[in-house]
Design goal:
The protein is mainly α and 362 residues long. Helix content is 56%, strand content 7%. Helix 3 packs across helix 15 (283-309), helix 4 (90-98) packs parallel to helix 16 (312-340) and helix 8 (133-143) packs across helix 9 (156-172). The structure holds tryptophan.
């Protein structure tokens, strides 16, 4: 059997550079590698609702934003099935059965659930749906018999949980489900791109994101206001790279060719870093370079997004078709799951026959 990808994002906002380096870029490369038999990219609206129950409008508004970002980045509906989670009700049914295979204490130990509960101040008022979303994510992945799940490292605990469910299901019932493998970003910087304020993570609520759909002016403004080294006051002062967001972004995005094009007095990033640390290199110059580097890849994305924005009904139609394809795929797995669990009563001739015999003894 060929390899299958399933991955996705919660539609709680437009996608940003953190999404790009953390997973989008890789997805597009994988899509175009030709190595995968099937690729499913899911807009996880139902999962987003687990902690936005009172704000469905936010989710509704952001589905199209995420779809546009996907298309703009080069996800191609001819090669990848793009779909909306809530339009595949089979996922709910799978989740319901998987719930019997997971303990409450196991969920409580899930590090992502733990930290998100803290982050959102849920503490004692955790919605059950939110608490159990690792189970629903296992359903997302296994419904498509995904072999490969390209995501950021924050999703590792979800994948662990999924694997446990797969093993448990296959041992209790029958070998139906496929154990997926996580595919993490290739390098450390891409694992977790900090926000423009230097904080650990780009996050909409912190207002420290550069969005893929930001205008040229917005990007420039954000880059020029980025966090660097607060002790690097005069140009002559030696600068520090530690926690310096501008250099972290350069680690993630700059190549030697960028230096040739925009900053030929340096051969590569190492030379620039050395100069910064010695002193005599101002932040503004480094930020201008970063802006040029970012513009080079954001400009084509922005242009493609604009094109798709001119034909919104076609984007919705594409999502609808994708959701139908996804649904058919999930339904196939669900049939096997039901058979393995022996809840396929009406298809089970042997069951019916055995009852005929049981009740017709004399
Ligand atoms: N939890 C993922 C996120 O927050 C989104 C997601 C939902 C997902 N279901 C998935 C990712 C299945 C990979 C596979 O980004």
């Amino acid at each position: 059997m060929g390899k299958v990808i399933l991955t996705g994002d919660r539609p709680t906002g437009r996608l940003h550079l953190g999404h790009y380096v953390g997973s989008l870029k890789r997805r597009v490369e994988l899509q175009n590698s030709g190595e995968f038999e099937k690729i499913f990219i899911m807009i996880a609206d139902a999962q987003a609702l687990t902690d936005n129950a009172d704000n469905p409008e936010k989710i509704r508004q952001n589905i199209i934003e995420v779809a546009l970002d996907y298309l703009a980045c080069g996800l191609d509906p001819e090669k990848s099935t793009l779909f909306i989670q809530s339009q595949v009700p089979e996922l709910c049914e799978l989740s319901f059965y998987y719930m019997n295979l997971v303990t409450v204490s196991r969920l409580q130990r899930n590090p992502t659930v733990k930290s998100e509960i803290q982050l959102r101040n849920f503490e004692t008022s955790i919605p059950v749906g939110f608490f159990t979303y690792p189970i629903s994510q296992a359903a997302d992945i296994t419904a498509f018999k995904a072999t490969t799940v390209p995501v950021g490292e924050d999703q590792l605990p979800m994948l662990e949980q999924t694997k446990e469910i797969v093993r448990k299901f296959n041992s209790v019932y029958d070998e139906v489900l496929v154990e997926p493998e996580i595919l993490l970003p290739k390098n450390q910087v891409c694992m977790r791109l900090p926000g423009t304020d230097g904080k650990a993570k780009m996050s909409k609520s912190l207002g420290n994101c550069i969005y893929l759909s930001d205008t040229k002016e917005e990007v420039k403004k954000k880059v020029m206001a980025m966090f660097t080294d607060p002790n690097h006051i005069k140009i002559e002062d030696p600068g520090s790279l530690e926690g310096n967001a501008v250099f972290t972004y350069l680690d993630a995005f700059a190549s030697d060719e960028h230096f040739e094009r925009y900053l030929p007095e340096y051969k590569n990033l190492q030379e620039l870093k050395d100069h910064y640390q010695r002193g005599g290199l101002g932040d503004v110059k480094v930020k201008r370079f970063l802006n040029a580097v970012l513009e080079e890849f954001l400009e084509p994305i922005r242009t493609r997004r604009k094109e798709y924005e001119q034909n919104i009904p076609a984007v919705y139609e594409m999502l609808k078709k994708g959701s139908q394809v996804a649904r058919a795929e999930a339904a196939k797995t669900l049939d096997e799951v039901r058979a393995a669990m022996k809840i396929n009563y009406f298809d089970d001739e042997a069951l019916i026959q055995s009852h005929v015999e049981k009740f017709n003894q004399n």
